[in-house]
Amino acid sequence: MTLPKILFVSAEVAPLARTGGLGDxxxxxxxxxxxxxxxxxxxxxxxxxxxxxxxDQLTFVRWTMIKLGWRTMYSGLMTMELDGVPVxxxxxxxxxxxxxxxxxxxxxxxxxxxxxRAALEAVGQAMDFEPDxxxxxxxxxxxxxxxxxxHYRPYGFHQDIRTxxxxxxxxxxxxxxxxxxxxLLDIPDRFMSEYGILKDGMPNFLKAGIVYADRVTVVxxxxxxxxxxxxxxxxxxxxxxxxxHKVFGILNGIDTDVYNPKSDPNIxxxxxxxxxxxxxxxCKLALQxxxxxxxxxxxxLLGMVSxxxxxxxxxxxxxxxxEIMEQxxxxxxxxxxxxxxxxxxxxxxxxxxxxxxxRIAFDSALSHRFYAASDLFIMPSxxxxxxxxxxxxxxxxxxxxxxxTGGLKDTVKAYDPLTGEGTGFSFKNINAHELLFTVxxxxxxxxxxxxxxxxxxxxxxxGDFSWLGxxxxxxxxxxxxxx
Length: 483
Fold this sequence. Notes:
With 483 residues, this protein is an alpha/beta fold. The chain is built from 18 helices and 17 strands. The strands form three sheets. Strands 3-4-5-2-1-6-7-10-11 form a nine-stranded mixed sheet, sandwiched between helices. Strands 14-13-12-15-16-17 form a six-stranded parallel sheet, with helices on both faces. Strands 8-9 form a two-stranded antiparallel ribbon. The chain is globular. The N and C termini lie close together (12 Å).
């Protein structure tokens, strides 16, 4: 059977430009699909940071002018190769010649409106590639199915292209005024209804994608069910219920080449299953020294690598952090986010010098050392569409403490004291003391049953979190949609 040709359209692709899970997925899934024999390619904006760093790898393909309302804007098409995956990049200095990936929200609406129109203009003759499936990601690309219906298919173009939209985070939807979106995207009036792209009278990019895409995926099976409830649906739950026949949950994976404790250049002592105890002890001592914590391989170290936002359960953690520190453990936190969370963590850290370290930074290399050094990894998220950190932590033998939501529920098997099975620890409710009690139980197990603890680490490290299974699931979905 001929394998489908896939073009991924995304605002982020690691390592070229990323702020989180979206970039990680786009850096790994196309590569995994190419290993399956698919012709998978990517298209993304040419941000200033990419142009500065990869200028010598970029090849010019062509330029054209894109009509955007009353504006006529230059659109350059460049290409490069990333780990064997062809990547196309849309060039425009006005929209993408900035240091950040995301800027002012209103301007971002315009920037990604331009990107979607420019990407569609590049498909086919310009890039000499007509995909079977456009795989879209989040609100930045979710208008493409309706743009195909409005501007291409009625005129005989891209008739056979199908669309798959992946929602990595339902919270961000791309909402703006009706007149402005009609202007930027030249959307005909027939699309401007509550049955089309409008949600509560306003154009909503993500809603439009859910309505017009051929398939919609979210990034874990549990999250696929959660988004159809009032608590998790972010106002789109009833729409998703009505479109349930085309909504699927496919769990993300991690790049097991990048996250491999046996060969990771970012950690002081590589290790595998057989050498995990000695390797993690050495990594812990090194991180304790680096962060100014009291040096002791025997002291339990809790790690957290996260955006510091309410979604990530920071309110739960802060409510019981003083009590956690009374357990005789250490904790290290790495991340950036809301200023009041950053300030609160730093204030508590001053009261626990040598035992609580907080680094307000986005530092990929340092995050690897956190995973390798920590005994427990804390993720008390209020919601978590998939989550990658818990999978990375398990790969490094750091046992996750998670709330049972989204991908956390799907990937972390809670310790069963009767059988000894499990890969971490979990609690059910959005409750700070449930988090505290779960941490206490994990620390008690580590202290009183070291053999059971070591077995848990081996079970966690033995899990398969690669993209192989997920890539197969996407491949089946593509085959369904083009059948």
